[in-house]
UniProtKB/TrEMBL annotation:
<dbReference type="InterPro" id="IPR058960">
    <property type="entry name" value="Ctg-1-like_C"/>
</dbReference>
<dbReference type="Pfam" id="PF25883">
    <property type="entry name" value="F28H7_8_C"/>
</dbReference>
<dbReference type="InterPro" id="IPR053302">
    <property type="entry name" value="CRAL-TRIO_domain"/>
</dbReference>
<feature type="domain" description="Ctg-1-like C-terminal">
    <location>
        <begin position="84"/>
        <end position="190"/>
    </location>
</feature>
<protein>
    <submittedName>
        <fullName>CRAL-TRIO domain-containing protein</fullName>
    </submittedName>
</protein>
<dbReference type="InterPro" id="IPR036865">
    <property type="entry name" value="CRAL-TRIO_dom_sf"/>
</dbReference>
Amino acid sequence: MKARMVDLEQMLHHVMKLEAETGKQAWILYVMDLTGLQYNKKLYDLVTGSMKSLADFMADHYVEMIKVGLVKTAEYIEIPPFKSVKNFETVTVSCGQAHVVTKELKCGARLKWWVRGNRNFGFGVFWSETKNVEDFFVAKQVSPCFPWMPGPTLVPMEEEVIIKHDAFYHIWVSNERSWWRSLEVQLHVEVSD
């Protein structure tokens, strides 16, 4: 998802630039290479897991610029390797619950996080003027929120931001969609001045 977000932001930049130059609505033709596609259980997992999450994310944030087409050729890109973190905390989140780490931070501080989970989960980083937040979807987002992502996550989500407001910052890990199973996440949150 993180690698796709970079691509999507670059596409959005090009679309907005083209729209500014022409004065007309522009879009991206999103091409998928289906060469070697096999109809098996992995296809079901792909369509109901990572592809569904990507499609939901695109529909929420980039709906006006994406049209989808399927062809038999495509270019491949190389994704850079991720960094491993050794001093993470393992957190168990019960079914139907969420785990929130809240930090009071001042403007100019750095907030860094690293997270991966053993099953499907939601994740977001928000800020608010009050310490207690009942609904994180009305709080202000620090980075894009993923209400649901397929797991297990082999590549961790990691990011670092410079704080722009004196406020309370909330790292939200959700297992609220699960009815039966607990979620185990490896989480590292770091604050520096």
